[in-house]
């Protein structure tokens, strides 16, 4: 394995890689925190493609990258130049219209842009431009263009013989990498509880976000028997460690080689994979990892079940047994595998003539999102006594129960019958019975999800009927309007234009200038807080957070945390040297009182008012050790009644004091009563809270100066001055003894004005007390849990308007 990071492909001194150069020149970065990710996604695509990718491939490839501030249009535009184009369109002789006029390929209108007489002049001026233009990927030192020094895969790594590995980690963790099936089975017999790892996309989430701890881990991705991908008589054999991206490539080849009636299942799996996560995940995640995780919303498991796939399981004694996919999933994240067994491979059977397989997935977004409901369905039609009837059918839904749900009653109804409109109503009724979603089902949106189960079935009905009609074997009439439901969704390539006026009056304002830091951002030379070199002796911080919504803190026990590796200190409200308050600046310097209402503490001292409220901060030698120690702080609470929604707060008359405001103009009641409104409607709109979702999480590096009498910090904040004030207040120092610097931030969107200060204040308490530098960088989940959002709103409205849409009166209560 050879890992290349964005720093490796180009920088400002050596010259930019063309991918970096394009993104910078095309205004594809603003604060630039996402930029190296985009560069590397594009670079990886170019390096791994034999031929220039298509625009669609480029866009698909970026599906796992998020950008919050630039917007995707300039990024996609920037990378569009690397796409394969149909050169003949431009180079072949121009098409002509009926009048014999040449048609311009770019505008589609008559033009003279390639008029013979103009060509020389145009091209010579163009050439002179090209000659003087030196792209920034051109290196001034050695005069080479970048592509003359593209890095190659290191030969020494290519020659290196891969070895089995055994690594010992901290806290007794062991990591094995067997290279043979027999080694793997031997390890599994020694460590039946060992966690098998392939792409780590599931296990990584468990260990990082759910505090799962596995003492023995076995990486099985190099075991050849688990990497099998081959066509057999029965179907395709897919090893459990096969990456989803390899499977995609293989299925494309199989579909191209085999008759379409044999590959209906392959096509369904391939289409489902298109909307499975994004390229980055598909490049590492495996077939076996997805199956064995047995997630109720797995996108593939309902399809394996519907296709009649078989799973081969091997035990530590080399015995192989086969089970059908339908019998494999036993419960929530529970599968039919004993401690001494592993999943060996999957056999995906070929489909028969007139056997149709369809996949479905509905999510909030198409790309990189989890399904609300998904499904796999298979219908086999055969001829019996002169009519074409359903001889075999499989309907499996994901996302509606703890395990993928087979709709047995509807299946029985269909078998032996013609698939026609006459059956639909009954089938819909049975589907409703068979796939009930409780009102409080996890995931919510119950009505919508229930209706999805029916519409998926309707879609396969349309599809099969259409196929049979096309072959002249059925005459079921299909509404033209329904036909679009037959096609699988394909998203056209994103196109956007931006119009702006060029102001050319000797000023850069109004000009589309490339931002000065763009080249720093595309090369990742731009430093954010987390990139700042830490001073010697720096400690890393993790927060101790409330697990209760509303409760009194009874006790805080740090005895176990103190023994945790690398632990250096726990700081609570009692340790704050100055005021423990956070609130509007005008209230600062009043010891231990909160602003407006008394809820602005740095560390909760007595009562917590939300899950995720900060109770303390732990510092340790590493970020991981700090997190582990913080998890070991044991807090006892006495629960208090909690109000969890705006509706509940209104019911309980629980309002913030002095917050009533009223704006009134005219007399709305009079207008409602006056009969001038043709219609009056009333209703409610509930808008949930919104996360600010800056790309760079909250982070601060704090260090003491002058033996701890002064505090300096680099913070990711939109308001360094506010940081200075609050930290001074919390430490009881004069403003002149606190310095806050902000070089750049990776996004704020308002979430780093007042919200960022609490983390700087918490870290500064630890830094001040210990006289050591402290760095705090929040994990994304902690960030989202601890920072306030833009509030939710409940609006109750009564609005009167005329028939031609003129609003006459509005009574709105928010
Ligand atoms: C950003 C993101 C997006 C995602 N999107 C989707 C999505 O769109 N659809 C979807 O369905 N899932 C999605 N997932 C879930 C996950 O990626 C898949 O479940 C993936 O296929 C897991 O494969 P892996 O190789 O990474 O598994 P790993 O994390 O390596 O392993 C997962 C589990 O499988 C077990 N296991 C692996 N191989 C075997 C074997 N041979 N025998 C027995 N047990 C085994 C492991 O012990 C472990 O418990 C997403 C995950 C992430 C992080
Ligand atoms: S540049 Fe992409 S999130 Fe800011």
Descriptive report:
- The chain is an alpha+beta fold.
- Among the domains are: 6-149, [2Fe-2S]-binding domain (DNA polymerase, domain 1, Orthogonal Bundle); 161-351, Uridine Diphospho-n-acetylenolpyruvylglucosamine Reductase, domain 3 (2-Layer Sandwich), CATH 3.30.465; 529-642 and 692-786, Aldehyde Oxidoreductase, domain 3 (Alpha-Beta Complex), CATH 3.90.1170.
- 30% of the residues lie in helices and 20% in strands.
- The strands form 7 sheets. Strands 18-20-16-26-23-24-25 form a 7-stranded mixed β-sheet, sandwiched between helices. Strands 5-6-11-7-8 form a 5-stranded antiparallel β-sheet. The chain has a 4-stranded mixed β-sheet with strand order 1-2-4-3, with no helix packed on it.
- Helix 2 crosses helix 5 (72-80) and helix 17 (408-414) runs antiparallel to helix 18 (421-434).
- Residues 104-108, 113-136 and 589-598 have low confidence and may be disordered.
- It binds flavin-adenine dinucleotide (FAD) and FE2/S2 (inorganic) cluster (FES).
- The site of FE2/S2 (inorganic) cluster (FES) has 13 residues, from loops.
Structure summarized in a few sentences:
The chain has 814 residues and is α+β, with helices and mostly antiparallel strands. It has 27 helices and 28 strands.
């Amino acid at each position: 394995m050879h890992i290349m990071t964005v720093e490796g492909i180009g920088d400002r001194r050596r010259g930019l890689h063309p991918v970096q150069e394009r993104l910078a020149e095309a205004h594809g970065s603003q604060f630039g925190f996402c930029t190296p990710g985009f560069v590397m996604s594009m670079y990886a695509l170019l390096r791994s493609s034999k031929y220039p990718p298509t625009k669609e491939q480029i866009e698909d490839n970026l599906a796992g990258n998020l950008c919050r501030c630039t917007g995707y249009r300039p990024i996609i535009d920037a990378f569009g130049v690397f796409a394969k184009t149909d050169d003949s369109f431009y180079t072949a002789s121009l098409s002509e219209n009926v009048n014999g006029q040449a048609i311009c390929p770019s505008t589609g209108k008559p033009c003279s842009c390639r008029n013979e007489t103009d060509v020389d002049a145009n091209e010579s001026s163009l050439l002179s431009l090209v000659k003087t233009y030196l792209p920034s990927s051109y290196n001034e030192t050695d005069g080479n263009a970048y592509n003359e020094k593209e890095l190659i895969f290191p030969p020494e790594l290519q020659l290196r013989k891969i070895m089995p590995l055994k690594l010992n980690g901290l806290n007794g963790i062991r990591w094995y990498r067997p290279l043979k099936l027999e080694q793997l089975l031997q390890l599994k017999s020694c460590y039946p509880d060992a966690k098998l790892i392939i792409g780590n996309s599931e296990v990584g989430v468990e260990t990082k976000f759910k505090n799962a701890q596995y003492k023995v881990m076995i990486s099985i991705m190099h075991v050849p028997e688990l990497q099998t991908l081959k066509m057999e008589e029965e179907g395709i054999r897919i090893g459990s460690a096969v990456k989803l991206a390899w499977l995609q490539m293989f299925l494309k080849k199989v579909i191209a080689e085999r008759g379409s009636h044999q590959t209906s299942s392959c096509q369904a799996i391939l289409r489902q994979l298109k909307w499975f996560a994004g390229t980055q995940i598909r490049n590492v995640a495996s077939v076996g990892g997805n199956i064995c995780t047995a997630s109720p919303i797995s996108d593939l498991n309902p399809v394996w079940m519907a296709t009649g796939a078989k799973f081969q399981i091997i035990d530590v004694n080399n015995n192989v047994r086969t089970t059908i996919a339908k019998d494999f999933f036993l419960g929530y994240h529970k599968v039919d595998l004993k401690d001494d067994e592993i999943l060996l491979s999957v056999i995906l059977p070929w489909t028969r003539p007139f056997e149709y397989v369809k996949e479905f997935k509905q999510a909030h977004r198409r790309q990189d999102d989890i399904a609300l409901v998904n499904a796999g369905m298979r219908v086999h039609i055969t001829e019996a006594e002169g009519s074409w009837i359903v001889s075999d059918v499989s309907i499996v839904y994901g996302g509606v129960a703890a395990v993928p749900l087979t709709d047995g009653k509807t299946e029985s109804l269909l078998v032996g019958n013609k698939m026609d409109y006459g059956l639909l109503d009954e089938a819909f009724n049975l589907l409703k019975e068979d796939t009930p979603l409780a009102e409080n089902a996890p995931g919510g949106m119950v009505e919508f999800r229930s209706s999805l189960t029916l519409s998926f079935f309707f879609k396969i009905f349309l599809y099969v009927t259409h196929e049979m009609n096309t072959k002249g074997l059925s005459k079921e009439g299909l509404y033209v309007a329904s036909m679009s439901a037959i096609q699988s969704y394909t998203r056209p390539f994103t196109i956007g234009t931006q119009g702006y006026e060029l102001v050319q009056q000797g000023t850069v304002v109004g000009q589309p200038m490339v931002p000065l830091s763009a080249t720093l951002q595309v090369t990742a030379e731009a430093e954010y807080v987390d990139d700042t070199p830490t001073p010697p002796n720096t400690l890393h911080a993790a927060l101790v957070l409330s697990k209760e919504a509303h409760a009194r803190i009874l006790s805080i026990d740090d005895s176990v945390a103190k023994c945790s590796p690398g632990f250096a200190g726990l700081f609570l409200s009692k340790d704050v040297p100055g005021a423990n308050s956070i609130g509007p600046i005008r209230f600062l310097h009043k010891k231990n009182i909160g602003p407006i209402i008394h809820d602005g503490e740095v560390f909760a001292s007595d009562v917590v008012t939300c899950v995720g409220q900060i109770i303390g901060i732990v510092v340790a030698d590493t970020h991981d050790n700090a997190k582990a120690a913080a998890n070991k702080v044991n807090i006892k609470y006495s629960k208090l009644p909690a109000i969890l929604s705006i509706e509940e707060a209104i019911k309980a008359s629980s309002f913030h004091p002095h917050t009533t405001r009223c704006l009134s103009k005219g007399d709305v009641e009079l207008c409602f009563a006056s009969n001038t409104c043709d219609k009056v409607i009333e209703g409610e709109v509930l808008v949930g809270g919104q996360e600010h979702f800056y790309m760079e999480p909250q982070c601060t590096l704090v260090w003491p100066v002058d033996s701890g009498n002064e505090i300096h910090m680099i913070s990711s904040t939109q308001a360094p001055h506010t940081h200075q004030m609050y930290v001074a207040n919390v430490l009881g120092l004069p403003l002149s003894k606190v310095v806050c610097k902000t070089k750049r931030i990776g996004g704020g969107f308002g979430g780093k004005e007042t919200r960022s200060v609490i983390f700087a204040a918490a870290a500064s308490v630890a830094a001040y007390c210990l006289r050591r530098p402290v760095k705090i960088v929040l994990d994304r989940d902690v960030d989202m849990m601890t920072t306030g959002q833009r509030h939710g709103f409940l609006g109750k409205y009564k609005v009167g308007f005329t028939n031609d849409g003129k609003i006459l009166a509005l009574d709105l209560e928010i």
